[in-house]
Design goal:
Layout lengths: L5 H14 L18 H9 L3 H14 L4 H21 L4 E5 L6 H4 L4 E6 L1 H10 L2 H4 L3 E4 L7 H7 L8 E5 L8 H14 L5 E7 L1 H5 L7 H10 L13 H7 L3 E7 H8 L13 E7 L1
Parallel strand pairs: 1-2, 1-4, 2-3, 4-5
Antiparallel strand pairs: 5-7, 6-7
């Protein structure tokens, strides 16, 4: 990988646009715009005007079928809530695995925060985040396709005796089956009882074309053009057994469309989201 991840920049853009909403926003990520290249920052700045915001959101949702923007927004809010619940329940460590431009280490309080990511994307983020905030995070440069996760986290000060909440958002669908397996096995061996893993994945039926999901081909084509094609998915029906074989227990599994019904519908927001993009929670 050369330079930062395009998908990470797009998710940061979607979070920045949500933050610039005048009302009924799902979260406030004021660092998101700082993660963006100049062109995207200019777009976000212009959306402080409500008509411009409406136009930009409508353009994105029309141009990119399948609902990637709103799916990213609702999954962000869902994962925020899951992380806050875990920290409130005693998780003493937050691990952002494949962190991209995720700012939860700053938005959600945790005693200790680790950011694990590919060195190229991590280097870009460290240049864009304010230095005073960066000092609060332990950065762990790891390529999950090649580097062992456990030793890197331990070397950075991770405490295997303390409960943790791990967020693995927007990553598994870009990895190989072997890398996903190795990562989950490493986490199961490393995490203390009472820890949780929150991860996203693409329904396997969306990859092989058997699911009949709307918008999946357009979304997949868009990420392929950006040089980051989807390579892996889970079968939701098989996920509980898969996790059990690796010493983990599935606690929750829902699509971003389900999350939209929870978060957007009560606000009267009708925005396209994906039935094939899912958020799962596994207990160690």
């Amino acid at each position: 990988m050369e330079g930062s991840s395009r998908s990470a920049e797009h998710v940061a853009l979607f979070r920045a646009l949500e933050t610039s909403r005048r009302r009924d926003r799902l979260f406030d990520d004021r660092l998101a715009a700082r993660m963006l290249p100049p062109g995207y920052r200019a777009v976000v700045a212009a959306t402080r005007l409500a008509p411009v915001h409406r136009w930009v959101v409508r353009y994105i949702d029309t141009r990119y079928a399948g609902g990637p923007r709103a799916s990213a927004v609702v999954r962000t809010r869902l994962i925020d809530d899951l992380v806050r619940a875990a920290v409130g329940g005693g998780a003493a460590q937050l691990v952002l695995l494949g962190a991209g431009f995720d700012n939860r280490a700053h938005r959600i309080g945790a005693p200790v925060a680790f950011e694990v990511d590919h060195p190229a994307t991590q280097a870009t983020k460290r240049r864009r985040v304010p230095a005073a905030l960066a000092r609060r995070v332990r950065f762990v440069p790891v390529d999950l396709t090649a580097d062992p996760l456990g030793p890197a986290l331990l070397a950075a000060g991770f405490d295997p005796a303390a409960p943790a909440v791990v967020v693995w958002e927007g990553v598994t669908n870009y990895l190989t089956a072997e890398a996903v397996d190795a990562t989950l096995r490493a986490l199961a061996a490393l995490l203390a009882p009472g820890s949780r893993i929150v991860f996203t994945y693409v329904d396997r039926a969306a990859l092989d074309g058997t699911g009949g999901f709307d918008g999946v081909q357009e979304w997949h084509d868009a990420v392929r053009r950006g040089g980051e094609p989807w390579t892996f998915g889970f079968d939701p029906a098989a996920l509980p057994g898969y996790l059990a074989e690796r010493g983990l227990r599935l606690a929750e599994d829902l699509s971003t469309r389900d999350a939209a019904a929870r978060y957007l519908a009560p606000l009267g927001r009708d925005e396209p989201t994906a039935g094939f993009y899912r958020v799962a929670v596994a207990d160690a």
